[in-house]
Amino acid sequence: MLAVPEWVWPSAIDWVWLLLLGLLGGIAQVLVTRAWRLAPAAVLAPFDYAGIVLAVLRCDQRPGDLAGGNGVHRTTVTRWVREVVGLLAARAPRLDRALKKIARTGERVAESYCWTAR
Known about the structure:
Elements: H1 12-38, H2 41-57, H3 63-70, H4 74-91, H5 93-104, H6 109-115
Helix pairs in contact: 2-4, 3-4, 4-5
């Protein structure tokens, strides 16, 4: 109710964007549903898991919040994140050096910044 006095009607171009987003979102949902019907779960599941890891790395959600909503345990999400960071560090020497420097200080990589800040 607090936003009602500040309400501004969308302009014509805003309505076009809203309709386009709604249409594209609906099409995407139909395509994802069709993919899950046609492809084996083992092929599609890694994409869901990658989305979970990326959400944690971007600090969008805490591992426990994502785990509960996706039917996995918090420690599983934490392990996935550590594995992804390790894989990235193996491919990027500067990231590997930064991770080793952080480890020497006794901190954890993502947890110290993202997960305890909320």
